[in-house]
Amino acid sequence: MAPSGPGSVRRRCRRVLYWIPVVFISLLLGWSYYAYAIQLCIVSMENVGEQVVCLIAYHLLFAMFVWSYWKTIFTLPMNPSKEFHLSYAEKELLEREPRGEAHQEVLRRAAKDLPIYTRTMSGAIRYCDRCQLIKPDRCHHCSVCDKCILKMDHHCPWVNNCVGFSNYKFFLLFLAYSLLYCLFIAATDLQYFIKFWTNGLPDTQAKFHIMFLFFAAAMFSVSLSSLFGYHCWLVSKNKSTLEAFRSPVFRHGTDKNGFSLGFSKNMRQVFGDEKKYWLLPVFSSPENHQFPAKPLRESQSHLLTDSQSWTENSANPGKGKAGMSNPALTMENET
């Protein structure tokens, strides 16, 4: 076995450091459980009915918060399928051709049968030198993961993962349940927080947990409400954070609402057709979309409108146009 070099050691150190925000959130969550369930509900609340109601509601929110947070962290990002990777011959051609029109001609030939509508700012084919693939629409390279991520929104240090096609729903639910969790704690802790300042609480360690618990819940409620509201707006417009900062460029030019299908279908793009699963952190994209098989406009990619049609075309190559086979989304391999 070859000895580890300095670069390998640095990479391992970085991987450990990336988990620090997740550990911080986990420790904070563990302390909040102790402070609320034990010190506030069991030690400080005198009314049994209030204790029972608060503990039941608290544990429900706590469970949904932890579940959605776990799914956001450990759901692997989706990467482009092999269909978008260049063949060995195409890679050799690219290496021989200088940057410029000849280089783009090779990429155009490689992409002619792919369902790709977006371009670079200069109108060129979007190509990732690092992964050596033609980028599907809404796909971007993450410098932290060192991979191209489908429908990438951003890399979130608080979950040590890329937020994209495979876990964006879980990320939204994580924001929603963490916000509800903080609001619930702040609302039920408020009367005891006031008693702290009016000397209405017994002089025990519980009073300090109650004070800091209210401050933490109120502070996080403010920041989470703005972040959650922003992502709700993004969902309503079918945009990612990257697309909100830089509008996608299509064959016909820039279009800031190029992927929007209308409010209802935009919601279903993230949460799926089965509304009964919308509030649960489970993958709920339907097997059979009711969306049109082709995009409403040329700028709307097949990849995000009708995954079932790709599967059918792949199974029946005689049907449909050439090049419309399944660009099946593959899960990121663990390394």
TrEMBL record:
Pfam families xref list: DHHC
InterPro entries per the UniProt record, alphabetical: Palmitoyltrfase_DHHC, PFA4/ZDH16/20/ERF2-like
Membrane protein topology class: Multi-pass membrane protein
Reaction(s) this enzyme catalyzes, per UniProt: L-cysteinyl-[protein] + hexadecanoyl-CoA = S-hexadecanoyl-L-cysteinyl-[protein] + CoA
Keywords attached to this entry: Acyltransferase, Membrane, Transferase, Transmembrane, Transmembrane helix
Protein location: Membrane
Spans through the membrane: 16-36, 48-70, 170-188, 208-230
Assigned EC number: 2.3.1.225
Stored PROSITE patterns: DHHC
Protein's recorded name: Palmitoyltransferase
Species in which this protein is naturally found: Felis catus
Taxonomic placement: Eukaryota, Metazoa, Chordata, Craniata, Vertebrata
